[in-house]
Write a structure and sequence with these properties.
Blueprint (H helix, E strand, L loop, with lengths): L1 E5 L7 H4 L1 E2 L3 E5 L4 H11 L2 E5 L7 H4 E4 L2 E5 L4 H9 L3 E5 L10 E4 L2 E4 L5 H11 L3 E3 L12 E3 L3 E4 L5 H11 L2 E4 L9 H4 E3 L3 E5 L4 H12 L2
Parallel strand pairs: 1-15, 3-4, 6-7, 9-10, 12-13
Antiparallel strand pairs: 2-3, 5-6, 8-9, 11-12, 14-15
Length: 221
Amino acid sequence: MNFSKGTVRGSPYVGVFCSATDDYALVPFSVQPKELRLVEEKLEASAIRASIGNSGLLGVLAKGIGNKFAVSSLADRNEVKALEKEGLEVLAVQENYTATGNLMALNKSGAIASPLFSEKAVTALGKFFGTKIEQMAIGGNELSGACVTVTNKGLIANPNISESEFERLETLFRVRGMATTANFGDLMVGNSIVANSKGAIVGEKTSGSELSRIDEGLRGD
């Protein structure tokens, strides 16, 4: 598995600015050339420069698997069309809560969504991704997607997660994982990690002990 510390737009909060699947990685237009190379090399994914709602916060505003991405309702028609021209299937989630990437997590086996999402939005997401979606908070935090980083191989979760919640995630996603912080104490691990089944980039402030736990969790060992 490819593994590296790094930044996106000069920030260690790589998961805020980048959203990745095994095939594609959405990156801001303002990404630095060396950061773009790092994303493509470590994730072995095709990087697509994009914006959602005229924002580069792609990890906050989008979440996907394969060539499918659910994006915030803030995305305008031209932004959606631009993604579709790159070969992506796009669902603009019509929901009052617009931080779509922070509100859900998924892999090929299952998905979770924040309790903040309406029943209508959850139904639309389940139909789009072709999977059942369970609504749950993580350790009392309703930003479920920001509390979890999951791939088809492993799982990282906010360390405030309860034992029963962690077991539920491992069962749902059918992977083993690890509860840890990133970026020297960040509980919202989804903001500090961008990963797929082939690799991961973690924020450059991540400590050695955090890096070891993240590596173990994403490998699913």
